[in-house]
Each structure stands twice: as C-alpha cells, then as structure tokens.
Design brief:
The protein is of the alpha+beta class. The chain has 3 helices and 4 strands, in the order αααββββ. Helix content is 31%, strand content 29%.
Length: 147
C-alpha cells in the first residue's frame, strides 16, 4: 500500500537560478559536503525537520525564499506526515554519486516507524566552494531503485 506525503515536501528546492539569490556560505571539500548532509539527516532522523532545513539554509545556492517556503510547509505538514508514517526513528545513507568535478548527489532515507522518506541533495562546486544546488524529499521510494 503506497502512502502519500503532502506535496509540499516533494520538491523543496529545485529552483536553481531563480529571482533573489542570497550569498551562500560554502564548503571547502567533499568531506565537508558529506558532513553537512549527515548533520541535516541527523536532525531529520530525530524528527526535527525544521532544524534540518535550518542547517541547510546557509549553504543554499538557490533562491533562499524558496527554501524558507519549503521549510514553513514542512513545519506545518509534520504532524500530518507523522500520522501517516509514524515518528522518525533515524536515517540511513544510501549512496553518493559524482558527475564530473562539479556535482555530487547524496541520497539518504529518513527512517520512520512505517515508511522510508527519501532525501536527496545535489551539491554544486562553484568558484567559491560547494553549496546546495537542489534538495528534495518526499514519498517516491521507488526512485531509489531506478538505475
């Protein structure tokens, strides 16, 4: 039986290059990229979605207003999500994929009592360092198996 999460969480930030882009902090190495994603997922896996978004915000290369809107939607949807899939009980790293020297995609799942919630981060290496180019989470667990 497939359970659907509110659509407000499905694509948190796939709006690269839109409108107002704030100056992002950057990460200096791939090890720092992974450490940031692990920090975000530790918050998500503890059920602290708002804190997870907060940890991402300084490193967002996209329109910060889009990320903050997704954060507000996630905050408002959390109780409904927990009613469907249960409480968060941790997270698991799934894989890292690198394309060229400038893109890294990290895939995780937030583990809940009844469902895995996929989280994906795409980091772009700009001239000043690594930042989050795209982020998404949602209910498409099947996509984790598409290769």
């Amino acid at each position: 039986m497939k359970r659907f999460l509110p659509s407000s969480l499905l694509a948190a930030a796939a709006l690269a290059g839109v409108c107002h882009i704030a100056q992002a902090d950057t990460l200096k190495s791939e090890a720092e990229v992974r450490a940031l994603a692990d920090k975000v997922m530790a918050q998500a896996g503890a059920g602290r979605t708002d804190d997870a978004y907060g940890a991402m915000s300084p490193y967002s290369l996209i329109d910060i207003r889009a990320l903050e809107a997704a954060r507000a939607n996630a905050r408002n949807s959390r109780m409904a999500i927990e009613a469907q899939v249960g409480n968060s009980v941790g997270y698991e790293f799934i894989r890292s994929e690198k394309v060229g020297d400038s893109l890294i995609k990290l895939t995780y799942i937030e583990k809940t009592e009844r469902q895995a919630i996929p989280w994906q981060f795409i980091f772009y290496k700009s001239p000043s360092g690594w930042g989050i180019s795209t982020f998404s989470n949602g209910d498409n667990v099947d996509a984790l198996f598409e290769r």
